[in-house]
Amino acid sequence: xxxxxxxxxxxxxxxxxxxPLTPVQLSAEHLLRVHADRGSPLSPVLQECVxxxxxxxxxxxxxxxxFSSYASSPVADRVPTALDALIEEIIGPYRPGLEGRIxxxxxxxxxxxxxxxxGRLMQRALTNIIENALHxxxxxxxxxxxxxxxxGQLHLMVVDTGVGLEADVLARIFEPYFSTKVTGTGxxxxxxxxxxxxxxxxxxxxxxxxxxxxVTITLPIAAVTDDLEPV
Length: 231
Fold this sequence. Notes:
This protein is of the alpha+beta class and 231 residues long. It folds into two domains: 2-71; 79-220, Histidine kinase-like ATPase, C-terminal domain (Heat Shock Protein 90). It has helices spanning 2-37, 44-71, 83-91, 95-98, 119-135, 167-171, 188-198; strands spanning 79-81, 102-107, 115-117, 141-150, 153-160, 202-208, 212-220. It is globular. The model has no long low-confidence stretch (mean pLDDT 84).
C-alpha cells in the first residue's frame, strides 16, 4: 500500500506541475516572438528575465518527467542488445562537457555477450546513476564504467571518486522521494532500481565518505539466438 501511495502521489504531482507550465512557456515565447517580429529586441533586463523563466520551465518539465516516469508501470521489452553500444550511446553526449574536469573511463571485456534487455529502461537507469555520480564530483574526479563477466552474469559498475555517502543516506538510497539534493525529486535511484529489476537484474550501492561511490548492476547472461539482430 505504501508503494501504491507513492505512485499515486507521483502521478498527481506530475499532473499538477505540467498543467501550468505550457501557458507560462507559451507566454514567454510569445513575448520574444512579438518583439522579434517588430524588430525591437527586449531590453537586457527583460531578456534576462524571459530567459530565466524559460530555463526554470525546462527544469520543472524535467522534474515532472521524473514523477511521470515513476508513476508509470512500464513493461520491459527485452530484446538482444549490445551492451557496449548502449553504454557508449549513454556516455557519449557527456564527454564534451566533462572534458578537462571529469575523467571518463570505460572498461569492457572483449568477449562481451549480447544481453536480453529493454534498452530504453536500462538507458534511463544508467543515466540516473551517472547523473548522481557527476553531482558527487562538482569540481573534478573520475567516472568509471566497468563491466566484468562472471559465470552466467555480468557486473556493470559505475564508480565515482566523489564525496561519498553517509551510512544513513546509503540505507535510504532507493527510497522514493528521498534526496540529498536541493532540487532533487528523490526518484532517480528508485526508478533505476525498478528499471534494473524489470530487466531481471539487481542493483547494489557501496560508498565511503571522501572516497566515492560504486553502483553495481548484476545482469543475467541469457541465451540469445544468432539469427536475432542487435538493437
